[in-house]
Amino acid sequence: MGLYDFTFYDLIHRNAVCYDGKPAWFEAETGATTDFSAFKTQVDCLAAGLQKAGIRSGDRIGVVGKNSLAFFTLYGAAAALGAIVVAVNWRLSENEVAFNLDDCTPKMVFADNEFGETITSLRDRLPSVDRFINLTDNGPLDAFDDLLDDAPFSGEPVSANDGLVIIHTAAVAGRPRGALLSHANLLCASLHLNHCFNLSPDDVHLNLLPLFHVAGLFMAVCAFHAGALNINMAKFDADKAVDLIAAHKASLLFDFSPILGSILDAGEKNGADISSLRAVMGLDTPETIERYRKTTGGCFYVMYGQTETSCLTTMGRYDDCPGSAGRAIPLGRVELVDDADNPVPPGQAGEITLQGPMVFKGYWNLDKDNDQTFRNGRHHTGDLGRFDEKGFLWYAGRKPEKELIKPGGENVYPAEVEKVILEHPAVSQTVVFGIPDPKWKEAIKAVCVCAPGQSVTAGELIEFVGQRIARYKKPQYVDFVESLPEKDGAIDREAVKQRYGGKQPGNS
After folding, report:
1. What is the DSSP string of 80-101?
2. Interatomic CA distance for residues 291 and 255, integer angstroms
3. Any transmembrane segments, and where (predicted)?
4. Residue ranges of E strands in 332-426
5. CB-based contacts of 135: which residues, under 8 Å, 6+ apart?
6. Of 209, 233, 257, at which residue does a domain stop?
7. pLDDT tens, residue by residue, 400-431
8. CB under 8 Å to 207, separation ≥6 — which residues?
C-alpha cells in the first residue's frame, strides 16, 4: 500500500477494527452470520491460499456463481493480492461463459455446484486456467476449503488504481467487452452511495442483485463500507425477500423493474410489514414508485449510469424532480456534447459524457474501443440526455450506433440477437429493437422476413434463440412480414421501428 493508496482490502482491514464483532453478512439460505473481524480472517486465509497457489498481482480469477459469502470473500482476497476477479453472468449460455472467461485468460476459475458441470465441460477451451475450484463445499471441482491457508498473510503493495474486477458488458456487433474497474472506482462509488442514502451501521441492505452485476457488487460494498449488515440472497424470490425485510428490518435495496413491484405484491399478499424499507434506488415506473412511497413512507432514488461509470453518473431523490435521473454526482463532471464534442446548451439533447474518478480503466485488450470512448479526455457513454435549467438530467435515448435494449436491467445489443436469428434457416432478414414494456421497462422485439419456401413460428424462433445465447436475450415479440423497408439499398431500421414498435397487442 502506497502512502496515498486505499484499496478494498484496506477497507476490510479498517472495518475489522471499527466494527469488531458486529454482523457484516447474513446468508439467507443457511442462516449463518459472519461479523466484520471474522470476514477479514476468512479473506486472509483465502488470500494466503491463493498466493501459495501462485496468484500474483494482475492475475485474473474467474468466478461463475450465485451470491454467497464465498463469492464476496473472493473479491476481498483478490483485492489483498492485487488480482482481478472476472465476474461472469451465470445466466449466459455455455459458449458465452467460455468467451468471457477465455477473453481474460484467468489462472483460476471458481464455480458453484450448479455450474460445476458447465465449467468442467469447458476445461479444454480455457488453456490459461491452472486450477478449477468449487465456490461451495461440494462439487466436481477442487475443494474450496483445501485452498485456505491459516498462515499469516503478507501481501505485496496494491495501488488504488489497480484493477479489481472485470465485468463484461453487452455484445457490440457480437463481441462482449470486459470493463475493467479499479479499487478507486469501487470505493468512490461506495462513498457516493453512502452519501446519497445517509447510511449508518444501523442500516440493513437486502443484497438481491447478483455480484457479477455492477449494481449488485457496489451496493454490497457500500453497505459493508458503512458498517451495515448485508442480507444475502443467492437468487431473488419475492416472498422470501419480504420475509427477510420484515425479519431483519431491511432498510435498503437496489431495484430494476419488476423487482420492487413483486416485493410490494408479496407484502400485500402475506400481510408483511416492510415499512423499514426507507431507501430504494433504481429504475422503475412512476406507478410502482408511488405505490412504494405510500406503502413504506420511504424515499426512492433515481440515477443514470453504466458499468463503465462505476454504476453512477447522476443520482438524486425521485421527489426532487419526478421523471429525471437526478443531478451530476459530487465527484463527476457530466457534460452533454454534440457529434463534434462541443457542449450543448440546457434543454438541448447531447451525448452524456463523464470525467472523474468514477470512469472505468477501459475495455480489456480493446485499445481501439478505448481510444473511441475516451476521445478528447471524456468517457462517451453513447447515451443521450438533456439538462434542464436546474441541472437535472433527462434521459433522451441512445445514439444510433449504440442501439441497446435493457430488459429488467440487463444489457442486450440488437446485433447480437440478430446474428443468432439469422442462423435459423427459415429467416432471411431481421431487425431487432426495444419496445416499451410495463413489466420489464423494455422488451425485445424481432421483425423477420422468411426465406422463400421456409416457415417458422414465433414460439419456435424464440426458443431457437434462447438455446444459443442467454435466455434474457431472446425476443418476447416476433412479427413476420413480407418485406422490410429499405433506404439507399439497406434496411431502414428507423422505419421498421416506427412501423412495428410501440405498444404491442396484449401489452398493457
Report:
1. HHT-EEEE--TTS-HHHHHHHH
2. 14
3. 69-90, 208-231
4. 333-337, 350-355, 362-363, 379-387, 393-398
5. 63, 65, 68, 70, 71, 74, 110, 111, 112, 144
6. 233
7. 666 778 887 788 888 889 999 999 999 999 99
8. 67, 216, 219, 220, 223, 230, 231, 232, 233
**Is-contact 66 235, C-beta < 8 A?**
yes
Write the burial class of residue 446 (CB in 10 Å: 0-12 exposed, 13-18 middle, 19+ buried).
buried
111: left (phi over 0), alpha (psi -120 to 50) or beta: beta
- In Å, how far are 164, 248, 382 from 267, measured between CA atoms? 37, 15, 38
Cα–Cα distance, 29 to 366 (Å, whole number)? 40
CATH number, domain of 346, equals 2.30.38.10
The amino acid at residue 455 is S
Cα dihedral 274, 215, 416, 97 sign? negative
Instruction: Provide the grid cell at 258.
Output: 419488476
Q: Determine the Cα angle at 232 with ends 8 and 225, to 5°.
A: 30
User: Grid coordinates in use for 42?
Assistant: 476468512
Q: How far apart are CA 28 and CA 196, in angstroms?
A: 27
268-321 residue pLDDT tens? 999 999 999 999 999 999 999 999 999 999 999 999 999 999 999 999 999 999
Cis peptide upstream of residue 258 (ω within 30 degrees of 0): yes
Q: What is the DSSP letter of 389?
A: T
pTM: 0.86
Q: How many residues does the chain have?
A: 508
CA distances from 289 to 99, 216, 410 (A): 38, 20, 20
Question: What's the domain range around 148?
Answer: 8-233
398, 424, 442: which is the final residue of a domain?
A: 398
What's the Cα-to-Cα distance from 366 to each of 92, 178, 221, 372, 373, rounded to whole Å?
22, 9, 28, 10, 11
Confidence grade of residue 507 (pLDDT, cut at 50, 70, 90): low
C-alpha cell at 506: 396484449
User: Is 289 contained in some domain?
Assistant: no
Q: What is the CATH number of the domain that holds 420?
A: 3.30.300.30
Half-sphere exposure of 370 toward its Cβ, with a 13 Å CA cutoff?
Answer: 12
Q: Which of 382, 396, 377, 369 is nearest to 339 (CA)?
A: 382
> Are 33 and 176 in a shared domain?
yes
Number of domains in the chain: 3
- Residues 117-163: tens digit of each pLDDT: 899 999 999 999 999 999 987 778 999 999 999 988 988 899 999 99
User: Within 10 A of 494 (CB to CB), how many other CB atoms are there?
Assistant: 14
> Going edge to edge, which strands form the sheet with 362-363?
131-134, 108-111, 60-64, 84-87, 163-172, 175-182, 362-363
Is 112:64 a contact under the CB 8 Å cutoff?
Answer: yes
